[in-house]
TrEMBL record:
All residue ranges annotated as the VOC domain in the record: 12-127, 145-262
UniProt-listed CDD domains: BphC5-RrK37_N_like
Protein name as annotated: Catechol-2,3-dioxygenase
UniProt xrefs under Pfam families: Glyoxalase (PF00903)
Key words of the record: Dioxygenase, Metal-binding, Oxidoreductase
Amino acid sequence: MTTNTVAPLITHLRHVDIAMPNFAEQRAFYQETWGLTETAHDSGVSFLAAEGSPEQYVVRLRQDGQKRTDLIAFGAAGPADVDALAERLIAQGVRLVHEPRVMDTPGGGYGVQFFDNEGRVVEVSADVAVRKHRKIEAREPVPVKLSHVLMNTPTPEATVRWYTDHLGFRLTDTMCIGDREIMWFLRCNTFHHSFGFVRGPHAAFHHASFEMRGIDEFMRGTGRLHRLGYERLWGPGRHLAGDNSFSYFLDKAGNTVEYTTEVETIDQDTWHPHLYDVRDPANSDVWGTANDMNEFVAARSQNDVDRGLFVAPPM
C-alpha cells in the first residue's frame, strides 16, 4: 500500500498507557494474573514492567472516570533525534502536546508528545534510564517484554500513510478479505511489527501483545488464564504474518491483550510486503489449532470509542 518517505528516527516500542474507572481491579489483573511487575505507583497510577525488559515500564495504568488510551510511547536513539523529529512534525503542521523536554516519569529521559491524525497521543523519547532486568527462566510464564500494539481506525489508509510519512514506519504485511484490506503491520526495526492498525468502526485500542520466553512459557501462560476462568477470545494458534504464536484475552477494562512469542525478524532492505487473504484460514493460523476467527470474535476487539482523542492525558 505505502512505503516510508522520511528518515526513520523511531527505534522501538516502549509502553502503552491506558486509563479506566476500575483502576484497582485492572492493577490487580496485570500484576497477579498477567505477570507484570509494579515498579512505581502513586495515587491512581501504576507503572508496570516486564521482568525481561530494560524498559522502566511497558504498561501505565491510570484511574479516570472514562476509559481511554492515554498514549503510545516509542524510543529514539538520542535527544538530537527527538529534536529532529519535533522540528519535522512542526514543519508538517502536526499538533504537539508539548515540545521536547526533560521527562518526569520513571527513568526520566527527554521526549516529545504529539497528536496523530486521528487524535491519539504519541510520545517519542530518548535517554530513559535502563531498568535492571533479568533473564526469564525456562517454564516461567511471565512476559519478557511488550511486543507490539495495534489500534482500531475507521480511516486506515490515511492513518497508515500518516505514520509512514511523518514517523518513518515501514509497512511489512497487510491482511485482507478479498479486495478489502483490513489489517496493516508496521515496523520501526527488524521485528516484523511493533505497531499496526485494524479497520474498525471507530478509533480505539485494539490489542497489546506481550512476548513470552518461548512456546512452552507461552502455553503455560495461556493455560494459567484458562484455568483462572478467563475466556480466550482467539487461540492458541500461530499467525502467518509475523510467524508468531497468539492467545488473546480481555483485561478487566475490556481491552484485548495477547501472549505471543517468536515474532519474526526480517531483513529491512530486502523485505517485500505481502498481502494475505484471511478467507484462507492458514493465513490467520498456520497451526490450525485456534478457534475460527469470525465477525463475532473480531467484534470483541473493536473496543469502546476512545474518549482520549485530541485530549492530552493529565500526566
